[in-house]
Amino acid sequence: MNSIYDSRQRWKLAFIFVAILIAIASGVVSDLLIKDLAREERQKMEIWSEATRVMTSENPSLNMNLILKIIQGNTSIPVILCDETDSVVSYNNIEIPEKKDAGEFMTYKVRELKAKNPPIVIDMEDGTFQYLYYDDSINLKRLLIYPYAQLSVVFVFILIAFLALISTKKAEQNKVWVGLSKETAHQLGTPISSLIAWVEYLRTKELDPVLLAEMDKDVKRLQTIAERFSKIGSDPDPVPTDILESIRTALGYMQTRISSKVKIHTHLPEKPIWVLMNDSLFAWVIENLIKNAVDAMEGQGEITLRVEEKDKSVWIDLTDTGRGIPKSKYKTVFNPGYTTKARGWGLGLSLVKRIIESLQDGKIFVKSSEIGKGTTFRIKLRKYKS
Asked: Which of 112, 185, 191, 370 is the most buried (most CB within 10 A)?
């Protein structure tokens, strides 16, 4: 099942890569358009400056109407014409605010335009020079902003679509969990009832009481499993429970059912810690984590379970000395169907995550892991205050 999630990860990376390429392509195209428009505007300003120079000459053969049309044709590019001392000779497409001094404002504007574009030098043919300072047109300014606005809209659209997809996927997964769990509990109900009847019947016969006691334990275990699946498929009412007692019970059950080569060490506070939860389901969490640790250690090693009490929460760390988990798989291990074993459904950690997250502010995650040395899972739960 690993290949399914590896394939999904590759598709995600491919999607991100394509999105980056689109963003880069959009930026490059916009940059080319901006440069072309900026070059065109400078050419217009050079023509405008030449028309201004010619306007001051006294050549009677000039077509003054054409020159005036060129000068008056600039309706979008702010320009300021200055002499050699930066005194303003004329200006166009610039509005002076009513509450500001015209001289101070134009001096400020000249400094501003100097910084924006290189000036166009006009040789007046009388030994003097004038300088044309100009700003970008409103269309060029809009084009400068457009790529950012475009990418922002695309990003928001993709984000909304992604969140909607995740929400839909999670809702579908919940429906599958509920349906599967209820159906499993229902299917187990009939054979369990039959087994209970058979155990009661066998009690009337002269059979070994120890054997019957073990059979009764197994039947009750099946009842517990069916009850857990039934609760997974519904919203069980949580009750205040001493989490330390629940952990001890789960450990007591597991210690007799795992290899003697696996040593379990516990570090538990002495005082009870109360959490609002379902005791049966939480015991299932501990059992699944221990089974997962035993599989990771291949039947031999050490498991350390540590409980740490905080102001408003309780942390439960379960550490094994198994094969470890790659950092890229920290979240993937909780996906339904993910497993590294040749046989298995890969539902253990997924069930654990669902149970923990159904508790108030419950979280479970891989705290740390090192290949060949082991893994630590951390559970965070909110303490109950009466």
From this structure: 185
Helix (H) or strand (E) segment spanning residue 281: helix 279-296
For 277, the enclosing helix (H) or strand (E) is: strand 274-277
Mean pLDDT (the chain, rounded)? 82
Distance between CA 231 and CA 171 in Å, rounded?
A: 18
Q: How many Å separate Cα 173 from the centre of its chain?
A: 19
Neighbours of 75 (CB within 10 A): 8
Tell me which of 29-43, 118-132, 271-285, 341-355 is least confident: 341-355
Q: Is 318 exposed, middle or buried (0-12, 13-18, 19+ CB in 10 A)?
A: buried
Regarding pTM above 0.90, the answer is: no
- Which of 271, 268, 277 lies closest to 307 in space, CA to CA? 268
DSSP 8-class letter at 334: G
DSSP structural state of residue 78: -
What per-residue confidence (pLDDT) applies to 248? Answer: 92
| CA gap 74, 67 in Å, rounded | 12
DSSP character string of 138-197: HHHHHHHHHHHHHHHHHHHHHHHHHHHHHHHHHHHHHHHHHHHHHHHHHHHHHHHHHHHH
Amino acid at 134: Y
Q: Alpha-carbon dihedral of residues 201, 204, 209, 215, nearest 10 degrees?
A: 0
Rounded to an integer, what distance in angstroms lies between the CA atom of residue 196 and that of residue 210? 16
Residue pair 379/364 in contact by the 8 Å Cβ criterion? yes
Packing angle, helices 279-296 and 209-232, rounded to 10:
100
